[in-house]
């Protein structure tokens, strides 16, 4: 595989993921800051916040279903078809959120429509990263797979930067303007996603590794017959995404709605942490190409488990300087050791015939659990001084993910064509036909 093709594919994955996850993350920011007042005003403030964060989790609930469907399409008919479809679906669903009536004008129909569109977002996201990661991994040179696949996740961070940054001027609006029309603007901007993303994804070439592989008629059946242990391992490991959802959604809501910190500085914490992550992700991924996936991933899990304690404590006492420093270190650096590695780490567990299905199903079940983490910890930390229980929950999730990976095999030195199978084992789709 030529390096130029790997670079082209990585760039396309980066741009596509940035656009896709801009849409996905603006929902999380709006859920933390606005939706409790716009769609659930009849509830008391604490319950309204809990319901708003619950709709954020609904998007993750749809991911496992979407993973089965889009995983089949990607492994049976090609990665490119999945990548074009997911981007279009995400763009349309997100634009529609910005057009929804509020609870004041439509009553209970408003939150029902909100949940439906969030489900569509979840289905789209279920195939996005697995498709982009599979394509980048299969185009990459054997000795640089982590580096090139990491661009999908750095694109995700860029999307998160855009999603948070666009809310900075919106959040500064007077409360009346914010709740009437201001919150809609970031969602309407997703129209750009549809146009730009479609053009980019249409130009991506299918991987040579996929083209020369005989695919199974039912890839999911092959996956669970030959790789069920790896699927389970990825499910458990992927719950580490709880660190991301707790940092980006719960901590923001806790700081603004419970402690009373200003919206704008807390949004800037996320922006700066993600800017640092843009540089940290490829650097740490490149490190894993030299020393292995497991050491870097496990170090990231351990550091996140420790730093979540002082980070939430600093929010509880309103120490802005500590919040910025610890937030950037936690999410910008330490979580990047996880984000930069998992695309290659998970993808290398599966053979080409079932890679997209394996990554999609495993990660999306784990991410579905992580998606409800803000709701779970909001119930745990319902008061001003209950941050400790939230930190303990987060650390426990980090320990679970670390255990799943520590007990697995190291794959960074194996050639791409041999990934996911025992030595001298024939490709799993060889006798199954196209």
UniProtKB/TrEMBL annotation:
Any stretches that span the bilayer, and where are they?
21-40, 46-70, 82-103, 109-126, 147-173, 185-204, 231-253, 265-284, 296-313, 319-338, 359-381, 387-406
Gene3D superfamilies assigned to the protein according to its UniProt record, in alphabetical order:
MFS general substrate transporter like domains
> Sorted alphabetically, which keywords does the UniProt record give?
Cell membrane, Membrane, Transmembrane, Transmembrane helix, Transport
According to the lineage, what is the superkingdom?
Bacteria
A Pfam family in this protein? MFS_1
Classification via CDD domains: MFS_ShiA_like
Q: How does it sit in the membrane?
A: Multi-pass membrane protein
Location in the cell reads: Cell membrane
Occurrences of domain Major facilitator superfamily (MFS) profile (ranges): 9-413
The record, for PANTHER family, names: SHIKIMATE TRANSPORTER (PTHR43045:SF1)
* Protein name according to UniProt: MFS transporter
């Amino acid at each position: 595989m030529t390096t130029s093709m790997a670079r082209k594919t990585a760039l396309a994955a980066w741009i596509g993921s940035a656009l896709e996850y801009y849409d996905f993350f603006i929902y999380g920011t709006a859920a933390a800051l606005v939706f409790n007042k716009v769609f659930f005003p009849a509830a008391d403030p604490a319950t309204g916040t809990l319901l708003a964060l619950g709709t954020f989790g609904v998007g993750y609930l749809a991911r496992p279903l979407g993973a089965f469907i889009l995983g089949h399409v990607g492994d049976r008919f090609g990665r490119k078809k999945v990548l074009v479809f997911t981007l279009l679906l995400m763009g349309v669903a997100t634009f529609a959120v910005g057009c929804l009536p509020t609870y004041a004008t439509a009553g209970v129909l408003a939150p029902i429509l909100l949940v439906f569109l969030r489900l569509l977002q979840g289905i789209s996201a279920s195939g996005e990263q697995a498709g982009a990661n599979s394509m980048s991994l299969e185009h990459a040179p054997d000795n640089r797979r982590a580096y090139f696949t990491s661009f999908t996740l750095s694109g995700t961070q860029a999307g998160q930067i855009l999603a948070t940054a666009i809310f900075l001027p919106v959040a500064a609006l007077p409360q009346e303007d914010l709740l009437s029309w201001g919150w809609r603007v970031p969602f309407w901007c997703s129209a750009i996603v549809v146009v730009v993303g479609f053009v980019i994804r249409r130009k991506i070439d299918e991987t040579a590794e996929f083209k020369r592989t005989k695919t199974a008629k039912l890839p999911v059946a092959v996956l669970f017959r030959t790789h069920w242990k790896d699927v389970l391992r990825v499910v458990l490991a992927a719950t580490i995404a709880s660190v991301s959802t707790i940092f980006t959604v719960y901590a923001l809501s806790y700081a603004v709605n419970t402690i009373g910190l200003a919206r704008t500085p807390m949004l800037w914490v996320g922006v700066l942490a993600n800017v640092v992550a843009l540089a940290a992700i490829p650097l740490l991924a490149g490190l894993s190409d030299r020393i292995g996936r497991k050491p870097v991933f496990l170090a990231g899990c351990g550091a996140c488990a420790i730093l979540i304690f002082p980070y939430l404590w600093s929010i509880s006492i309103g120490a802005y300087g500590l919040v910025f420093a610890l937030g950037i270190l936690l999410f910008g650096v330490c979580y990047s050791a996880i984000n930069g590695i998992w695309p290659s780490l998970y993808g290398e567990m599966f053979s080409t015939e079932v890679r997209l299905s394996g990554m999609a199903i495993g990660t999306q079940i784990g991410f579905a659990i992580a998606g409800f983490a803000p709701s779970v910890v909001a119930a745990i930390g319902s008061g001003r001084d209950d941050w400790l229980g939230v930190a303990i929950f987060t650390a426990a999730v980090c320990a679970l993910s670390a255990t799943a990976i520590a007990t697995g095999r190291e794959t960074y030195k194996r050639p791409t064509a041999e990934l996911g199978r025992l030595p001298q084992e024939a490709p799993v789709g060889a006798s199954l036909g196209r």
